[in-house]
Amino acid sequence: MESIYMDNAATSFPKPVVVYEAVDHFNRCLGASPGRGSHRQTLQAGSILEDARDVLAVLFNIRNSAHIAFSLNITEAINTGLKGLLKPGDHVITTSMEHNAVARPLTALSPMGIEWSIVPCSADGILDPDRIEKAIKKNTRLICLLHASNLTGTVMPIAEVGRIAREKGLVFMVDSAQTAGVLDLDVERQGIDILAFTGHKSLFGPQGTGGLYIRPDLQINTIKEGGTGSFSESMEQPDFMPDKFESGTMNTPGIAGLLAGVKFILETGRDKIYQHEQRLTGMLIEGLQEIKRVQVYGPPPGCERTAVVAFNIDGMDCGLLSMQLDYDYGIITRSGLHCAPLAHKTVGTLQTGSCRLSPGYFSTEADIQKVLQAIHTITRQS
Description:
Elements: E1 4-5, H1 17-30, H2 40-60, E2 68-71, H3 74-85, E3 91-95, H4 100-109, E4 115-119, H5 129-134, E5 140-146, H6 158-168, E6 171-175, E7 194-198, E8 210-214, H7 252-268, H8 270-289, E9 294-297, E10 309-313, H9 318-329, E11 331-332, E12 334-336, H10 341-347, E13 354-357, H11 365-381
Parallel strand pairs: 1-11, 3-4, 3-5, 5-6, 6-7
Antiparallel strand pairs: 2-8, 7-8, 9-10, 10-13, 12-13
Helix pairs in contact: 1-7, 2-7, 3-4, 8-11, 9-11
């Protein structure tokens, strides 16, 4: 039975063929560590990192690509931004839709004197930016929020929040795990000071890739130190980007794949990818709403959302539903709390969790029809 992959919000699959080819070429033909020595292969490996920074800078409208540092994933990038910026007495504003990649670091920082406020969103995940402004205190240092929910697909008003942050002299940090590569991200126009991104979702890169953009005049401390291949005579960590945050050997084969993935986006057109995913998402929502006993979560029609659809069948455990879709129909979904208990509490599914469908650029209308038919059959049988 051929699988239908509906879990792109976790990791995009399949990748463009050029991504597989880029990783394979590096592993077979290069294999060297970037910045370690002066032989040709290490210089070529270093060029891959610089080229990847350059295409990401184009995608995110970053003026100086050297201010992009690679990390193992977006969680590491977020931890670097939060723990490297905040000091005892600082106050952080975030939302009730945040992923644990933000909530858990802030929870860990709380005993150290970091205060944080959770601004409530509506039951469909929508954020009123006025609530962010009203939550600002004298000691507020940072506003940190996701660009779109991994549970409901709800898109946050980051341009409006970025404007508020600039007017109030606050740092604005965005978690773009669900949006980088598919929604518009412009650090200049949207007032983003720190942008955390992951490579393995809509950027089409392999797992184990991600990074952090830091505004040039913003001072962030390191959370790890080590070999960078630069200024090796000093016992102190280099204080310039990107070396400051790139200790240890990079996942260069992964970044080679990420480079290929971002090039694919730029050549294909981000808008084309977005429109395709939106069309499939619309088909999913419309079809699910016509099936009795199915409850769909997320923003109402007319509100922007990513290609993420969370739903439940009344009276059926979401984990059992996900297993049945997999074993009986070959449909790959994600069930549970999606590492986002704050969001589930907001939506009202903290006790039940939900089943999530997330089509991608390589999903088809035929896939959507098969998914809807399977869910319809399950509701009649259960």
